[in-house]
């Protein structure tokens, strides 16, 4: 091999290694910024056939309907807790801050936050649907086939059939 061909080979290998290193670092940096979307049933039972349940401390987004009668506000602070439900279960969400004007019971919401112990989502942001016809695409898709009201949720085995 002549020296000119050798230098081109080394240059090509160096460029390839640089591209691989750059791609690896970008993917590693983005990994910590990804919030996976879950429905309440997926948090309680797992996602799909592989039963992938989120871990405590994992950042996520949860979408569903606000369970009627579940909104509790702390009179001393801006702390609010409520349950988000779908046909497979209900998950409690806590949030400190001012809720969107359109937030109300029986309406669709998406909450971004961290999963805490006992399947409680500690939200840092709560989004409410902006009109009667809009539902976030993830919520619409997840609830299309399995939407039930809160009465059916109370009777499910994983919730013990009571209003707790």
From TrEMBL:
GO process annotations (BP): cytochrome complex assembly; protein-heme linkage
GO cellular component, one term: plasma membrane
InterPro entries: CcmE, CcmE-like_sf, NA-bd_OB-fold
Binding site for heme: 130, 134
Subcellular location as annotated: Cell inner membrane; Cell membrane
Main location as per UniProt: membrane
Keyword Cell membrane: yes
GO MF annotation terms: heme binding; metal ion binding
Regions of this protein lying in the Cytoplasmic compartment: 1-8
Pfam families: CcmE (PF03100)
Membrane topology reported for the UniProt record: Single-pass type II membrane protein
Family under the similarity heading: Belongs to the CcmE/CycJ family.
Function: Heme chaperone required for the biogenesis of c-type cytochromes. Transiently binds heme delivered by CcmC and transfers the heme to apo-cytochromes in a process facilitated by CcmF and CcmH.
Name under which the protein is recorded: Cytochrome c-type biogenesis protein CcmE
């Amino acid at each position: 091999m002549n020296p000119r061909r050798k230098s081109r080979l080394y240059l090509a290998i160096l460029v390839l290694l640089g591209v691989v290193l750059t791609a690896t670092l970008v993917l590693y940096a983005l990994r910590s910024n990804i919030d996976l979307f879950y429905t309440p049933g997926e948090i309680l039972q797992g996602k799909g056939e592989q039963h992938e349940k989120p871990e405590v401390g994992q950042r996520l987004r949860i979408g569903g309907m606000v369970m009627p009668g579940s909104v509790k506000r702390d009179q001393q602070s801006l702390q609010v807790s409520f349950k988000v439900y779908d046909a497979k279960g209900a998950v409690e969400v806590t949030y400190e801050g001012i809720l969107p004007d359109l937030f109300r019971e029986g309406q669709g919401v998406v909450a971004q936050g961290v999963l805490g112990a006992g399947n409680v989502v500690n939200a840092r942001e709560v989004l409410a649907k902006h009109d009667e016809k809009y539902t976030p695409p993830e919520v619409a898709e997840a609830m299309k086939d399995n939407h039930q009201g809160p009465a059916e949720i109370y009777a499910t085995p994983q919730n013990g059939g009571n209003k707790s």
